[in-house]
Amino acid sequence: MTLRTGHIGLNVTDLDRSLAFYRDVLGFVLIGEGKEEGRRYAFLGDDGHPVLTLWQQAQGPYDGARSGLHHLAFEAGSIERVRAYETALRAYGVDFAYDGVVAHGEGAASGGLFFHDPDGTRLEISVPEGVEGAPAPGGDSAPTCGFF
Predict the structure, then answer these.
(1) Domain 71-148 architecture
(2) Of the four, 23, 50, 93, 144, which is 20 to 30 A from 115 by CA?
């Protein structure tokens, strides 16, 4: 039996703020939503397929010290797309874990951006190749996808 991810659901504290971030900054398309008070949500996707659901039901920001989601990683089609996202994210004023594009490890061809959404959820946009020569975080913070 083979499984693949259908979509990811994230609890958020402010649906309007999170929807603006994921739609306007990361480029997801709103494909459905619930507006009933106390049951607000937004389905976001690509080509009509749900990728992410935002549920307005969190009472506080993301807590990386609790069990559950460590981070959510998106794969871009090219390093140029990663750099375009970097520009949009900087304009939005996101909190980056590292300054710009970094390699997944010393000498790795893969890597990308590591940052936080408006509720502090850890996010990654990366590519499997094209990052050759980029710095890799060292010490206790490597590998980048595990310890940010």
Answers:
(1) Roll (3.10)
(2) 50
